[in-house]
From TrEMBL:
Source superkingdom: Bacteria
Keyword terms, alphabetized: Signal
Record flagged with keyword Signal: yes
InterPro entries: Beta-barrel_OMP, OMP/PagP_B-barrel
Keyword Signal: yes
Annotated Outer membrane protein beta-barrel domain residues: 5-203
Protein name: Outer membrane beta-barrel protein
Signal peptide segment: 1-16
Length: 204
């Protein structure tokens, strides 16, 4: 019976040697894939989620992740025109609440080193995001007693993005625990959608 129990544990032990599990979190810089009515980032932009890494020969590995991101966006502008009616002033405001999931898949290579272990990675990132958007347009004739008209619109939208991702960092071990700060660059399929991530990962 004891030998049977040990035999059943062998696949689990082999799996632990092949795969490591962890979590990553950090902050994001730059404009992400959001382009709903020229809305721009207006709040702290962070990300966090689980990761799994499959170790391959020759210091290569395959890293998969599911990173959640939440942020607010805002657009605010004023414009006016004279014709065909007297001077009208318009104020357009937009607010968005965006939730996104990034699913990166990257090949990682660790360099041979004592102490800290530098690494580089490259792969592809798929993003699924959705937004609740509120748009307000106010028009008036610019006088103190003039009429004012306000138009309000609320809508939800979602979109998928995909693009290459590259990065690098340092890794060190505390027993079975691995800690790794890294910098990652992602370009999603929209002009100007460059995203820079400063991440910190823990795995075991």
């Amino acid at each position: 019976m004891r030998f049977l129990f040990l035999f059943l544990l062998l696949p689990a032990a082999a799996w632990c040697q092949v795969a490591t599990f962890g979590v990553k979190g950090g902050v994001l810089f730059g404009q992400p894939a959001d382009d709903f009515g020229h809305l721009k980032i207006h709040s702290e932009h962070w990300t966090v989620g689980p990761t799994v890494e499959f170790h391959l020969p020759a210091r290569f590995s395959l890293e998969l992740g599911a990173l959640y991101t939440g942020y607010n966006t805002k657009y605010d502008t004023n414009f006016s025109f004279l014709s065909p009616v007297p001077l009208l002033n318009f104020r357009l405001e937009g607010h968005g609440d965006t939730r996104a999931w990034d699913f990166p898949a990257a090949i990682k290579y660790r360099f041979h080193s004592q102490g800290f272990t530098p690494f580089v990675l490259g792969g592809v990132n798929y993003r699924r995001e959705s937004s609740d958007v509120r748009v307000t347009c106010t028009a008036d004739d610019g006088s103190s007693c003039g009429a004012s008209i306000t138009y309000l619109a609320n809508y939800s939208t979602s979109q998928d993005r995909i693009g290459p991702t590259f990065g690098g960092g340092l890794e060190w071990r505390f027993g079975r625990l691995r800690a790794a700060p890294e910098f990652r660059y992602t370009h999603l399929n929209r002009t100007g959608a460059n995203q820079y991530n400063l991440l910190f990962g823990l795995s075991f």
